[in-house]
Amino acid sequence: MGMGGNLLFNMPERILExxxxxxxxVKLLKLFLRNSNKQFLLSEIIRKTQERRGAVKKQVKGxxxxxxxxxxxxxxxxxxxxxGGLYYSVNPNFDFYPELQSLVLKSSPTSKExxxxxxxxxxxxxxxxxxxxxxxxxxxxxxxxxVGDDLSQKKLRTFLADMEAEVGxxxxxxxxETKEFDYRFHMFDRFVRDVLEKPHEKLxxxxxxx
Length: 210
What we know:
By secondary structure, this protein is an alpha+beta fold. The protein has ten helices and seven strands. It folds into two domains: about 5-105, Winged helix-like DNA-binding domain superfamily/Winged helix DNA-binding domain (Arc Repressor Mutant, subunit A, Orthogonal Bundle), CATH 1.10.10.10; about 110-205, Beta Polymerase, domain 2 (2-Layer Sandwich).
């Protein structure tokens, strides 16, 4: 039995039921466990998960009840540009924190087929390359690299927001027109070379020279 199996075997049933009882909660687990050093206002959690306020509030309370999430009140500070309110963060002292974080980080962030299908609607995509969070890799320059023409910035922003809600982490990306990529590739541009040399997977490649 692997690590995930051991985690599920050892974890008390009531905690298991609370952790995996809804898709929204899975989004919350990804958000908090992929951003273990960050704290969020409820409004930020709602925006990042793209779910209804009431549903998010209920699920956050459930994770708080089993002590996976901790909350603290912060005073507003104009000088430090801090917004006052209740801030939520993951509790590193949660009994199964290391195992749970490992389980979430090693899980497949999203369907590659679904990603490509949506990417093709953004414009005339010539190459779509994924790395970083999509491959659970820490050695990367960007999570998503696109080469294509007539890219809709509005559709791209919507796509990124949806992916970030599903993955639970801000996505680092870069997009280039085919002509610019062709030039930079053949000029041995450092950034382009780094992207191509780091661990990655091409969801699509219609460029014959790469």
